[in-house]
Amino acid sequence: MGTCKFKRVMLKLSGEALAGKNGFGIDFSVAMRIAKEIKELVDMGVEVGAVVGGGNIWRGREGEGMDRATADYMGMLATSINALALQDSLEQLGVSTRVQTAIEMKEIAEPFIRRRAMRHLEKGRVVIFGAGTGNPYFSTDTTAALRAAEIEAEVILLAKKVDGVYDKDPHKYNDAKKYDKLSYIEVLEKELQVMDSTATSLCMDNNIPILVFALDEDGNIKKAIQGESIGTIITRK
Ligand code: UDP
User: Fold this and answer.
1) Does the model's pTM come out above 0.90?
2) How far away, in angstroms, is 130 Cα from ligand 1 center?
3) Which end of the chain, N or C, is less surrounded by CB atoms within 10 Å?
C-alpha cells in the first residue's frame, strides 16, 4: 500500500474522457480503465467523490437556436447517463458506489443529500455526482468545485487530455510551455483553459487545490494521490 497525500478527493472527468477515440458516446473499455484507476485509490483507503461531464453526449451551448436553459437541462441529463456508466464499471470491479443526482430521478439514483454523501464516503463508497449543480448556465467544472467544497475534499483531481496547464495549446504549438504551479489569480488573469472562471473562483474562495493531469497515462491518478509531481498544481500560492 503506497502512502497517500490525500484522504478525500474529488475527481473531475470530462464527458469526453469516457468517449475514447470516437469522441462521442461511451466507450466501455475506456470507462473500465478509468474505473480500475479509481479502484486503486479506493483500495489505498482514499475516499473518492467523482463528477463526470456530459460533453460526449450533449453540451448546452450546442443547442443553437434552442432555449438555453432547456439545452442545459439536456446536458445535465447527459451527465447522469455518464454517471450510471461509470457506476456500472466500478460495480463490475466490486467497488461499492452511489450515484447522487442534483435533479431528482429517484428510481435510478439517490437525490443529492450532502450528509448522506459524506456517510457513503466514510464507508468507502465512491459517490458519483450526476446532473451537475441542477442549475442551467453552470458547468460540471463548477459542480466539481461546489461538491468538493461541500464534501470537504482536499483536492480536485482534474483529469484532462493534456498533462497539465500550458501557456498555449501544446497540440498546436511546439514551443508551448507547461506550468508546474500556478495560482488561481494567474489562471483567471491569463485566461488559461483550465476550468471556467466560475469554477476557478469557487476553488479560490474556498482554498481547494486543483491538480491538472493527463488521464490517458496509466497510473496517473495514483501518482497524483501519492503526491508525485505530475501535471500542474493550482493553489493560492
Ligand atoms: N450543465 C448545466 N449545469 C450544471 C452542469 C452542467 O447546465 O451545473 C450542462 C451544460 O449544458 C453543460 C452540460 O451540462 O454544457 C455538460 O457539462 P459540461 O459541459 O461541463 O461537460 P464536460 O465538458 O466536462 O464534458
Assistant:
1) yes
2) 10
3) N
